[in-house]
Amino acid sequence: MDWLLQQSINGLGLGSIYALIALGYTMVYGVLRFINFAHSDILMLGAFAAFYLEPQVSRLLGGPESVLGAILIAALAAGLCALLGILIEFLAYRPLRQRPRLAVLITAIGVSLFIEFTAQHDKVFSAKTQFFPRLLPEHTFQWGQVFFSSTDLLVPAVTALMLGAMWFIVQKTRTGTAMRAVSFNQQAASLMGVNVNRIISFTFGLGSALAAIAGILYAMKAPGIEPLMGVQPGLRAFIAAVLGGIGNLPGAVVGGLVLGILETFLGGIPWLSSYRDGIAFAILILILLFKPAGLLGKATVEKV
Amino acid sequence: MLEISDLSVAYGAIKALHGVSLRVPPGSIVTLIGANGAGTSTTLRAISGLAKSSSGRIRYDGQDITALPPHRIVSRGLCHVPEGRMVFANLSVQENLQMGAYLQRDRAWIAAQTDYVFSLFPRLQERCQQLAGTLSGGEQQMLAIGRALLGRPKFLMLDEPSLGIAPLLVKTIFEKIVEINRSQGLTILLVEQNANLALEVSSYGYVLETGKVILEGPSAELKANPQVQAAYLGI
Ligand SMILES: Nc1ncnc2c1ncn2[C@@H]1O[C@H](COP(=O)(O)OP(=O)(O)OP(=O)(O)O)[C@@H](O)[C@H]1O
Ligand SMILES: [Mg+2]
Question: What is the pLDDT of residues B20-35, one digit of tens each?
Fold first, then answer.
């Protein structure tokens, strides 16, 4: 029983982070129909932005580990990553808009490798793992044999907040409606007066900001940060997005949570624990075989 | 209102238009007829900016709009109901209409115009919350026209509004088109396979063949022209 509860808490935390990252993959896929492989590196850059911002913000506020400081750091890191996401789209993907999708996909892999190897340079972040500073005071709670920290509670809470904000933007605002319109048919959207390029930039910015937040949350739970830290969670989140139905926003959340919880539970079984990656990929293969549209994906029918 | 001179458009190696010239005076309904592949849709797509022209000029309201992107052209009140309707299947009927009014700021005007669209097509009001993808073909056509009317058009281009619609409904839609032209003072450029109907509602017509204007004149004259009768009216 305790074991179940403990694994549920861990799974929920991990799944929430996957969900945040998966949203970025799925939103970009929604408007441009390609997987932005550099997304996982934005996550890493978000964590490093927080790493470098923390001393500055702490000095500004006269002390570390304050709520205001954490919010400020997260907001600045998210803003920086949003700008970077927009810049990457503008420089690397937009010139290839009319080209075959494979060209964009390969470019995305190129951008990803470029960021990862630039970041590993000694004059940049260097390849070594660095200790991530504590952004908030941390409390540990015990309930029977179950242990959890305030971070374990924070992660799902922040995720829920972000998801609510995303839902509101996409479903209730004029820009969100335009995003959905662009995702269905760019030409038709432009005939409504939508500046398609601006909507695409906005989508990249939003997805990248979420990735930065996810990166910070991930770093708060991980032992340290390094330039390749985004690869693992990025891959899992990609699987989560496919699991939920690529292009489908609620699907990304469901996929993330399901994957996080499955991975924690199955990985928590001693003789299975070294097969965590194998489990994630087995899920991907099963989904592609039996339900390629994903758990929540549905094919839209266009009448002629 | 609209003046096209010597317009050419190519899709890669395929030349779709070879020097098309035409004029649409303010307040009129002008029609463009042609067999499949003649280039009628391409002409409309070039005007609204969806297709890039390789040469020629498009003047609208006294200004050159040839090189403008689609969203800048719409903002001048030039709205295009494209071939195949292109309603947003993943959005509700209401959201489709909201997208039509994307550039409009005046809420009172939007509300009044939405009511006007609902009065033209009461079916849309009944289906307000339904996803547009689940509408019937004819209902989607109504939505496409209604959506364009919410863009506050001064100039409306309709590409085959009768395509795939029951004959009775076609008649209704054409009556609505004439009504919109009269009551909202809208200039209309109409592309239609149903040449009979198109020449009936319009005042002037152009006949396109393999990317060229081969014939033009007042609609009544075109209707009486033996060449047109043989090729397009099935007489
Ligand atoms: N995207 C495209 N790529 C290549 N060729 C195209 C494209 N769109 C149209 N064409 C070609 O350009 C020519 C004109 O096409 P257009 O769509 O304007 O025809 P149309 O007059 O509207 O025909 P219909 O009445 O059947 O709709 C056709 O020969 C068509 O094959
Ligand atoms: Mg056509």
Answer: 999 999 999 999 999 8
Q: What is the ipTM of this complex?
A: 0.93
Domain containing B183 — which CATH number?
3.40.50.300
Task: Give chain A positions within 8 Å (CB) of B103.
Answer: 192-193
Q: Which of B42, B74, B87, B90 is the mutation pick for testing A, counting most A CBs within 10 A?
A: B90
Range of the domain at B182: 2-233
Dihedral angle sign, alpha carbons of residues A94, A95, A97, A103 = negative
Task: Give the H or E element holding residue B60.
Answer: strand B53-60
| Cα–Cα nearest to A179, from A159, A161, A197 | A197
Orientation of helix A231-244 relative to helix A196-221, angle to 10°: 120
Residue contact A304–B147, C-beta within 8 A: no
pTM above 0.95, yes or no: no
Distances (CA, A) of B226 to B36, B157, B207, B214, B235: 20, 28, 13, 14, 9
Range of weakest confidence among A237-251, A285-299, B176-190, B208-222: A285-299
Which domains are delineated in chain A?
A: 2-133+150-290 (1.10.3470)
User: How many structural domains compose chain B?
Assistant: 1
